[in-house]
Structure formats: structure tokens, C-alpha cells
Amino acid sequence: MEINASSALQSIDAPMLTAIVCQSLRRDNLQIIDWHLSQIGGGVGNPVSVGLYRIEGTAQDRDERVAWSVILKIIQSPANVGWVNMGEGDDPTHWNYWKRELLAYQSGLLETLPDGMAAPRCYGTNELPGDVAWLWLEDIGDSYGDAWPLERYALAARHLGLLNGSYLTARPLPALPWLSNHLIGQWIASQPWQTIPWEHPRVFNRYPRPEVNSFRRMLVEHKRFLAQFERLPQTICHGDTYPTNFKSRSVRGAPEQTVALDWALMGIAPLGDDLGQLVFGAHLNLKEAKRVDVDKALFESYVAGLRTSGCRTDPRLVRFGYTASAALRVGLFQLYLLSEELKQSETVTEQVAEHLAVPDCFEVAMADEAFELLKVI
Questions:
Q1: Class in CATH terms, 5-138
Q2: CB 377, CB 320: distance < 8 Å
Q3: DSSP type of residue 244
Q4: Do 140 and 120 touch, CB atoms closer than 8 A?
Q5: pLDDT digits (tens, 9 = 90+) for 169-227
């Protein structure tokens, strides 16, 4: 049953908002004066996401008029829009289980994250008929205006190291049935990577020839890597660490925080898994920085975060977890995008185009290193 987001949003009224805004502003007695709503994301891509909305306005607190804003995130079962095997079922460990973020906020786990890492405050949740849920969340600005320098990405990597390391030292892994598990294995099993036409000219725009494409080789030999993942230390991971899911928050008199948005893929994963997508996104965003410099700065900062947490895992194991998972997670998503592009192509040529030498893409470079590390760990 596909929901009508516009009709659902029309049910929002002043009494509903009053309770949310009082929590947001930490005030006891407010009167909502006006508000307006705008969509800022969601509604495309992952079928769990119905929409992400900012609601902002003014309120009266005795003799004071105050401005406010909150975020409303609406999620649903993928079955509502006809998707199957996308987290709509009863398996809470499915990588895309639709209720995971709702349950994460309801559990209180996100209120007790290690120093440096935070989640938006949650002001309330609503579970509605038809497998739909609303999350009322803190509206987070970014102290850098979302234009981070390399040093700020490195700080986020350090905070991820603190998060991942703390669940290997000071904190036990929480026994929560809805945490995702074996995400990479699920992706490999569900993505049609076997049918990618590696000799297609458009594929050559990103990848070297199949015989020297270490990422393709990794997919063919993926059982070796999945087995090694199981032998690595397992920890709590955010699970979706592209830079768009992070905000930098500065509070006077307190250390700078990394606020992580979108905990829908949160779960148990090998140490190092959380770093790859952040490095990939930082490299894309920092146009003037070399990939090796971004890699070095963020990896060293991540390891420093692990050590601060008390985690003394062999850096080679951390490096393997990072490079292998980075290759597979980034690469599988790039293959998905590439396969969709090929589907939309008017004609699919069988001709093998002349392949010009190009620098290795991110996932090939990561796979190259992961294969070398596999020999020594």
C-alpha cells in the first residue's frame, strides 16, 4: 500500500507540533504561532525513505518570540511500493530492515555514544498503520557550511575510531536483534555483479581490463574475503559513512562533535568497515587533494581514535578491514549505478572498444592493497 505523503503531512497541526517544539527548545510553555514545511530529501532511491522534511516557524514563550525548526523523517516498509527482498520482511538483520532506525532511537542506544560522536536528538516517534513510521529529529546545522577541509574529515575518522574501538574495549556489543549483520555478504549475494559486461566500453570508462581488474577478481574470490572478515574483531558500526551523513557541531566550551545522521544501516561489522565510504567521499569532495594523502590522513586518525579508546588491534588487520570493505562497499554501489546506466542506454554495443590507460579507480586501488594484505595477516 503506497502512502500519500502529502495527505499524511496535512495531519500535522499546532498541538502535535507544540510537544515536539517544547522538547526541541527545552521550554515548558510555548504557543505555536506559525510554521511552514519543505522537503529536503528522501523519496527517491531506497524505498524505505518516504521523505525528509524540515518544519520551521515561530512560537511565543510568554513575552518572547522564538524561532524553531525540526526534522520529520518518514519511513515505510518497501512492500508498500512493491519491493521484495529489500528489508520489508521479518528478518531484522537484513541490511535494509526498514524499522532499524526507528528501533535505534527507541532503544536509547544513540543517546550514549562515545565522546566525539553524536546522533540528532529524537523528540518522538509515531508508528502508523500500514507499516509507516515518523521520526521527529533535531535539525542539525554544520559549523563548516558542509565544506569540510581535510583536517575535519580526519577528525570525523578519529571519532569513528573512538566509536568502533569503544565496543571492543569498554562496552559490550549490545544484544539487539535488529542490528544489521553480514551486510557485505548480503550485498554480494543480492547484486547481479556476475552479469556486468566487463568488456563494455562504458565499463572501461571506470575499470581496467578484466584480467587486471583486482576488484572484479575480489568479487570472483569473495568467499576468501568474507571468511577473513569473520576473523576480524567485530564491532558496532554506523554503516553508511558517506560525508553527506555527517555534520560538524561546535558547542562553546566543549570539543567539536561529529553528528552522524541516518542510522538505518547500523550494525555489527568488521573493524575498519566504517572508514571506507568516508575516505571515498572525502576524496571526491576535496578536489585538490591526492587520494593517497586523504587515505593517509584519515586512516592514521582512525587508528588514533582506536588507540584512544584502548583498542590495540594490529594496524595491518585494521588496514585490511578498511581496504577490503571499502573496495566491496563502494565498488558494489558503483556497479549498481553502472548497471542502471547500461539499462537506460538506447543501444548496447557488443564491440570491444580500445581501452585507454586510466588511473585505477578507488575500489580497484583498495582491492589491490587488500589482496596484498591478505598474504600477511
A1: alpha beta
A2: yes
A3: G
A4: yes
A5: 999 999 999 999 999 999 999 988 999 999 888 898 899 988 899 999 999 999 999 99
118, pLDDT greater than 50: yes
Most confident of 248-252, 325-329, 352-356: 325-329
CA separation for the pair 322, 336 (Å, rounded): 21
3-state SS class at 41: strand
Q: Supply 143's cell numbers.
A: 559549523
pLDDT of residue 351: 46
Q: At what angle do helices 362-374 and 276-285 cross, to 10 degrees?
A: 140
CA 297 to CA 304: how far, in whole Å?
11
pLDDT tens profile 70-91: 999 999 999 999 999 999 988 9
> Would the CATH topology of 5-138 be identical to that of 150-374?
no
Cα–Cα distance between 221 and 224 in angstroms, integer? Answer: 6
Residues 6+ apart with CB under 8 A from 313: 168, 233, 271, 306
pLDDT, tens digit (0-9, with 9 covering 90-100), for 3-51? 566 777 888 999 999 999 999 999 998 999 999 999 998 767 799 999 9
Pairing verdict, β 31-41 and 132-138: unpaired
The three state secondary structure string of 144-197 is CCCCCCHHHHHHHHHHHHHHHHHCCCCCCCCCCCCCEECHHHHHHHHCCHHHCC
Residue 331 in grid coordinates? 565498488
Q: Which three cell numbers stand for residue 225?
A: 574475503
Yes or no: say if 76 and 134 are a contact pair by the CB < 8 Å rule.
Answer: no
Q: Which residue has the cell 595491518?
A: 316
150-374: CATH topology is Aminoglycoside 3'-phosphotransferase; Chain: A, domain 2 (3.90.1200)
